[in-house]
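I am hoping you can look over what I have pasted underneath with an eye to the fold:
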Amino acid sequence: MLEAIRKHAQGWLAKVILGLIALTFALFGLDTYMQGDRSGGAIAKVGELDISREALAEEVRAQTDRMREAMGPAFDPAVSETREFRQQVLDSMVERFALLQEAQKLKLAAPDSHLAMTLAQIPAFQQDGKFSRERYETVLKQNGRTPAQFENELRQAFMLETMASPVALASFPSREVLASLVKLVAQQREIAWVDLPAASVAAEIKITPADIERSYQANKADFTEPEQIQAEYVVLDLATVAANIAISEQQINEYYAAQSAQFGQPEQRSASHILIAADKSAAPTVRAKARAEAESLYQILQKSPARFAELAREKSQDPGSAEQGGSLGSFARGMMVKPFEDAVFAMKPGEIRGPVESDFGYHVIRLDGIQAAKTAPLAEVRASVIEALRKQQAQKQFAELAETFGNLVYENADSLQAAADAVKSPIRKSGWMSAKAPQPPFDNKALSEALFNSDGIKNKQNTEAIEVQPGVLVAARVSAYQPARLKPLAEVAALIETRLRTEESAKLLADKGKALIDELRKGEEPVLGWSVFSVVGRQPGDILDPAGAKAVFRARTDKLPAYVGFARPGGNYRIVRITRVIDAVNADPMLANSIESGVMQAQQRADLQAMAGLARAAQKVEIKADAVEGR
């Protein structure tokens, strides 16, 4: 049990809670919203709670940042600028507000003991393996939060999780549905095919200048270049500041002497235990019985210490360690519950002690070994010492430079030169870019908005110093501007003609293919050069692209041969003849497990959405007509 608890504390729980510290909370960063509308500009009301335009903007920024991080280069900033995206974000906020108010009605409040236990288990808040109030407050301050905000968010997370867990755990797929899905997914079909080349209809395509003119007039937006700018910019980077700091030998030696503890390994002890479980809330008689059993085991081991592993496997109620003869491996202070830890660190190697009482029951403990604390020699940690010293000094220098940088870009609004000289960073130049396709670092929303607004373009003055990522400040100004431009017809005529020919070719080929398929279905056999037979599955490949695989496996096969047609990526049209359906005899276990997992996740999502919908329906929801307009 102790082993399981230790792994749990260092695993998903710690990661989830550390995720909550981030500036962009993925699920539960609701403190700003739950305090109501402080700006006086409510755009929506959910029960007793208001949502402000500022709160919606913050959530849109947070979700945009998460998408950018998750998708990397594939992320399109234009997606998060759409009205539809803002509407989705607002809907999710409304549902969360409704769920929280339902949780409040059900009195699903997080106990103080739960909150204290959660905080104590977060590694980021620990010093020497133990919760540190000072470190806790420092970490939160660095992330722009207060203890009251963070603890409120943890309570709200507990409420939402308590609401959602029963619904998610109650979702499970039908065995019959799973079996049918596995059968369908594993199914194969025997096919032959023939391609109708685009060249076969090329002579029928006639594109006139009037056709090109009509297409041009109807699709001017497609041929309009958006307004573009070039920018000058200066970057103040904490990493660059740190890299340029020289560290002396005296500083290295002094830091190593003062911080030697952090460059070593604290004393660790390896121990084994036998646990007789008895919850701290159990009746006194239950705990007394557990204690008596532990005492009996202790007396046996006093006479026969060699039986420890044997008795642990037979009697211990901690499944994680019982199979290992009671072994818990090695651990330092702060990794076990206090009564257990205090006993272990007061014992001698080979000593057996018990019963030791904890919240989990009674333990009989054997100390298996001691690994003394040790400090790494300076030569091994020299690089770490230098890095730590540079970071330490860079933070101070960066703060001073940032203030100077910010003042100079403001005071010298028409030039970045003074700011660049002060922070010893060159003035850089961007290429031409539009608001919808900004280049780094202008893919930062705040910086992009500052550059592409009408004042920035007209006056070409410096933006303020904007933090585009932690430790990186950028100030910029527009250096050149091109207004939006509709390309003249002569410039795009060839492109329009190619597009029209492609569209007409696809239509003619589809018509020709469908006519041939009708003949084939009537039993007629036009002269076609069919390929050799192949067996294909649903997975796209050389023979079937995704659209082709979908078409072939959607085709009705109650009467064979069956025929289906679809356009190919290169412009050809493929007619497929299906001659046989092959069902899998034995389903692949990995495939079955994958399908079961997917179906379960889909059901959980649907059930959770339904629960959120019911919670929303139970609240009076008012949303202003212009709630998602603008930025």
Summary: The mean pLDDT is 84. Residues 267-372 form a domain with the Chitinase A; domain 3 fold (CATH 3.10.50.40).
